[in-house]
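RETRY 2/3 - previous attempt timed out on the joint model. Re-submitting the same 350-residue input unchanged.
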Amino acid sequence: MKKIIITGGAGFIGSHVVRRFVKNYPHYHIINLDKLTYAGNLANLRDIEHNSNYRFVKGDIVDIEFINKLFEAEKPDAIIHLAAESHVDRSISNPLDFVMTNVVGTVNLLNTARHHWRGNYDKTRFYHVSTDEVYGSLGETGMFTEQTAYDPHSPYSASKAGSDHFVRAYHDTYGLNTVISNCSNNYGSYHFPEKLIPLAINNIKQNKPVPVYGKGENVRDWLWVEDHARAIDLIFHKAAAGSTYNIGGHNEWKNIDLIKLLCRILDRKLGRVAGESEKLITFVTDRAGHDLRYAIDATKLKQELGWVPSITFEEGLEKTVDWYLANEDWLKDVTSGHYQQYYQEQYANR
Ligand code: NAD
Ligand code: TYD
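RETRY 2/3 succeeded.
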């Protein structure tokens, strides 16, 4: 029997990881530990919330006493750590929130695990889910490998880089059984609509301006979230202690080309005249410190563990747009209240 705490399980990627583990491993106990910030939503897990091998615990990873008591009571064998503040624009407005959750929260989990698992490091595992943004920005060519030096530029990526360094330090100093993966931009269902793809789908659908930062020349490498969850599953079970894997689908898109593709898909699905949705594209002031290009080299993951993406970007985007069109209530719920206020502040003066 494995008992796994998955942190941030009510968020976008976390909910896909929790669903996958609950369904694929009925003999594991999955505890979803989440603070339920604006980004955490238990509606993301409605379909599995009554499964007997699943439980939700509300709590803050920064809270030392709470995390210690949780370890004492549950005696977990492993952690898959996804809880984080995750949006670059918010990190520019509120960097300290990112330091607290992403750095202090991660170190608190590491430290608690170090004490509770002492003598059992060979039977336990701390899996830290990170991002390609720690590597910084690429020029026109090249790719991030596991050997690329860290060079973060935003408070978000700096806080994730800090947390990665602590994870490695806990492996090298104390011998904790850690694994890190650094993944490229994800897209798919349950993605909070402050991020580019769900925001664009939502705005196009509602005939609202689609804000494109700068000239839209920045490049991101997009991966379907369920392929990320599958990679996490594989790495969790197979990776050597202390190892790192990059995860990505060789799928680079300039923001402007991606938005135009979404416009074409939505013109078709909403029965609009071709070219109608593109008129919504609105160029706005660029993000401060905006990284030009991310691209992941996931050769190690392919060669060592046999992982490759299961679907093409075109298939994934179709599925994703269909999901947002079919789940209007979910979108309405998460875009009411605080989201409206955030949207006003974020885009009013751009
Ligand atoms: P998200 O913002 O959708 O979800 C984060 C979750 O963490 C939420 O459920 C939130 O309630 C929870 N949380 C936040 N602070 C917490 C705290 N102090 N204590 C407990 N729970 C807390 O994020 P996401 O996009 O699903 O990203 C998940 C992880 O994957 C993050 O660590 C992120 O850095 C990493 N990542 C994301 C991407 C991407 O494209 N979204 C790519 C690579 C890596
Ligand atoms: P985002 O989804 O915030 O992910 P990240 O910054 O972590 O890569 O943004 C993806 C890209 O889209 C990034 O280059 C910034 C850009 N972007 C826009 O052009 N307009 C928007 O409204 C948003 C949210 C992002």
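The pocket of nicotinamide-adenine-dinucleotide (ligand 1) is lined by residues 7-8, 10-14, 34-37, 39-40, 60-62, 82-86, 101, 105, 129-131, 160, 183, 185-186, 192 (CB under 6 Å). Closing ticket.
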